[in-house]
Amino acid sequence: MMARRRPTVSQTTKRSPSPPPMAPGAPLVGILPALLAKGPLQVIRNAHTEMGSVAFDVDFATRREQFRFFGDAMKPAKLRTYAGLMVREVEEYFARWGQSGTVDLKQELEHLVTLVASRCLFGEEVRAKMFGEVATHLRELNDGMRLVTIMFPHLPIPAHRRRDRARARLGEIFSDIVSSRKASYPDGGPDDMLQCLIDSRYKDGRATTETEHGDRMDYEVLQEMDTLHRCVKEVLRLHPPAMMLLRHARRSFTVRTREGDEYEIPEGRTVASPLVLHNCLPHVYRDPERYEPNRFGPGRGEDGAGGAFSYTAFGGGRHACVGEAFAYMQIKVIWSHLLRNFEMEMVSPFPETDWNVVMPGPKGKAMVRYSRKRMSAAA
Questions:
Q1: What is the pTM for the complete model shown?
Q2: Residue positions in the annotated binding site for heme?
Q3: Residue 167 belongs to a domain with what CATH number?
């Protein structure tokens, strides 16, 4: 729910700031006409313009430890081992392309990203023997995350039924793999993320269970690709992987806006942070609608102009995406290979963004004509 601005509470008064007023109507029913007529992106923008910048509406300790497990699997020492696997997967994939041709780049990259993830994260068992089935179920999981899912996660619609079946089957697949590895490798198995999670231990000493798992190009070279990194970062600013971040207020707290207004956020409310707006705030980003990767370069650093959370494509705080470094590395492996080896030209209209899903992406196809570059002998 969105909040209208209230005057700042005087320092001399003992009263706490008032809670933000609620938008009229039930959370979904109240905005349903506008949602259907204008679409979710315009509804968010209109609400922000009208009501301001403050919005609200396993147990925590265990979840925090599980975040630590994932964090350990994404540390530089592990990422170094993933880099070689990524390069191998990418080179093998694009070796199957011809000297020239036309492809749906969106479909190609979706397939390749799943291949890379299966090799680095899911293990050789999935990559070699079960990739097709696992990839299908992952697509069904993703397709089951609709805007309606936020309000009605168990609504009996076909997408939710496929999602639930896929989740159950993936649970069976990875439980079997984990059990097999524990029996076959009592002292440690393959060097991938799944094994890292299997080997993790809670603070009380107990192990994770099966149901909890679900040219020279290496790590150092990838870390030096500053220009490509900034390009990817700018794409994510303009096209964030989610429309908003939602957080539950476990206790009441006070927030102060840039204009100096204060609000008391009551315990139990949900705080919504719309990335589609925050990534384009004009007081943080100069000419925010323009694609300008160098805004993150030396001497500018616009992503820090508004504080620690000026840039939140991967979230922030203790709930920040633990896979951020992995994602950047994967994208740089793929695009550095494409840019070095292919000339590419887009032959279909630039795709619009599909805002009707939880994780927005290109709508329709992205057809690209490619031809292999003639590499010099020195290269």
A1: 0.67
A2: 321
A3: 1.10.630.10
